[in-house]
Amino acid sequence: MKVTIREYIESGNLELYVAGKLPPEEAREVEAYAETFPEIREEIEAIRDSLEAFAGLYERKPSDDLLSKIKQKIAEEDDSKVAVVELSEEKQTPIQPLTRKTNWRFIAIAAAIAFLLSVGFNLLQYLQLEEADKQLALLTEQQQVLAENYNKAATQLSIIKSQETQVVTLAGLEKAPQYSARVYWDKSSDELYLSVGNLFNPETDKQFQLWAIVDGKPVDLGVFDNTTDLLKMKSVSGNVAAFAVTLEPRGGSINPTLEQMFLLGKLG
Amino acid sequence: MPEILTEAQIVALLVAGDTRAIDQIYHQFGTNLLGVIFRIVGDQEAAEDVLQDAFVKVWKNAASYDASKGRLFTWLLNICRNTAIDRIRSAEFKFKQKIQNPSNPVSIESERQTYSFNPDNIGVREWVNKLRPEQAEVIEMVYLTGYTHEEAAEKLGLPLGTLKTRLRTALKTLRENLNP
Fold it and tell me: Which of A50, B43, B68, B97 is deepest in the core (most CB within 10 A)?
């Protein structure tokens, strides 16, 4: 590598670079090398010092009025820029003369591009905001559902855990011993919950009905479908001997259909 | 002569479109720049004309000056040199030459042929003692007056390799003289 850098330095390209005589692509190459290799950077600076010092040896006394001529020419240059701009704005000429006009066109194009980018960016922002709003609404809804579920579950759990709650297991009768359910009866509040262990899906015009046998008589505690949820049934109080589940026409019956009794749980 | 500003201050004024930058450049570099231009065009009036054009370019292209790529003087030198070379290649310049020297028709090449190195043109002499004339000559030809390596080799009747070696040795000598 050392040899290569040395060779590069010796090639004479760096001097031409400093003198501004390299074609643009070669000049960019030199700049890239200079960024990478400190030796090349230092060499360029040394060459620059040398050539500036060399040029500093050349002197020629200018005429006394040269500076004022230069300043006048620059002022004319600035004026001509303004004049060209005003002229072309008045006439709306499609042919664009001189460099200053090109600058205006460039500025106009740049402004248009900037504007379009800005519009695009804002639109993107707006769409993203809208999407974020939707997401937020969805999340809020989900959060509400979860909170409701949590509250329900917490209430149910507190009932199940309560020492006041009597748990009664309802077992399948002889014709279908595989079926089961469980009743949670909070004696402090008389509230009653039912959890289906295993039941079948009846025909759509049929529903299960829970009964309590109080003082030898069936008391309706409400109808239910086959579900895994913990169901809040009607409250009951008094001397309950047993809970029973029958299959009844949808909506329930006033009196249980004994042939269609599936579950029975007696209180001890 | 106004207060001398630093290069960075001058560049800042220039970019801001403040004409005090022009005063500063003129007072700090004008004599040198005119000296280099004169060396190329060989005529006081033409040299001053070229310098005016070069200043207009400097004024118009202030935004293109990149301080990270080189110092102000180098940038100014390059603009002046290129403007001067454009001038001697222009039809108008050749025409004037022809009018003034009808016996000596001018082309780019004949302009080159009239080239002769003369240390006295440079106005400062102490470095000549250390830098041999042929060394100063190649530096001047290649870096100041815009000859390509090939053109300079041909003009001096040297193989290209020899020219490059001489150029490097010359720069080395120049550098040693700058930093003794």
Answer: A50
